[in-house]
Amino acid sequence: MRTVIKEGKSTSAVISEFMKESNLKLDEFKFEVMEEGSKGLLGLFGAKPTKVKITLPDVTEKIKEFVEGILQRIDAKYTSITVNFKDHVYQVDIRSEDPGFIIGKDAKMLDSLQHLLNQMINKQEKKQLKLKVDVDGYRQRRQDALLDKVKDISEKVKEHGRSITMEPLHAANRRLVHQYVEKDKNIRTMTIGDGEFKRVVILPANSTEVIPAKKTTSRPRPERKRNYQSTSAK
Amino acid sequence: MIELIEFVVKALVDDPASIVIKEVVGEKITIYELRAAKSDIGKIIGKKGRTASAIRTIMNAVSARQGKRAVLEIIE
After folding, report:
1. B interface with A, Cβ–Cβ below 8 Å
2. Cβ of B58 and A74 within 8 Å?
């Protein structure tokens, strides 16, 4: 919470002045009259200004409001929402009895919520803020599972001295893979493919193996074909 | 559903007052027609339509749970 104290002739004068200054609407802040002013004798002697305490909701509370607003309107049950600011990121954690609904298929719902909340808060705050949304530790679990898999693959790559291509991943997940592999001097990474279908290849550091990009794009992927056509049409 | 769209969209635009959402109820599909100030259309659609598709994803999930289908039309 940020609070400011403003003085002026009357409460309404202070409030309208403040609204002009801060570009906020009346329902976006709270105010409290601390001291009622008086005009004094004939408006000359002993005139006292009106003091108004204005309370601005801070970003964390605003984020919480948005999350609650959406969850209530989509009828999603939740037990708590916590917002923490860490490493330049606002981490929103939702606890819910029905996390499946909030996460959605392939986390599409969760990603959509995250995107909208990011847009909403950036618009309202006129700043570039980064917001991450998680439900019941879902993203953390997925991240752990992904890194376990990368560990497995890395061992195999080192053992056989041959590259292994991973399935298409989102940018954020690919980043995790790259970061993990970077720590190991014996292996390195490469990215192949385009758009939605970028894949990470893990290969031995000294490998001169040529990764045929063509081969992977022509590999049949029946369940993704529809998406693929729409991206290639751009 | 209208409250949901309104809540999200109004937070995204410069001119929330000119947001108008009309519900056209069909037998199986409900269409939501969204009108906004011309300069705000881009903000609702987003880069590569990401914001619009995020709204649609949420709408689909909500209406699927009620056994209905919802379509969002952004009208210029």
Report:
1. 3-4, 7-8, 11-13, 43, 46, 50-51, 53-55, 57-58, 61-62, 65
2. yes
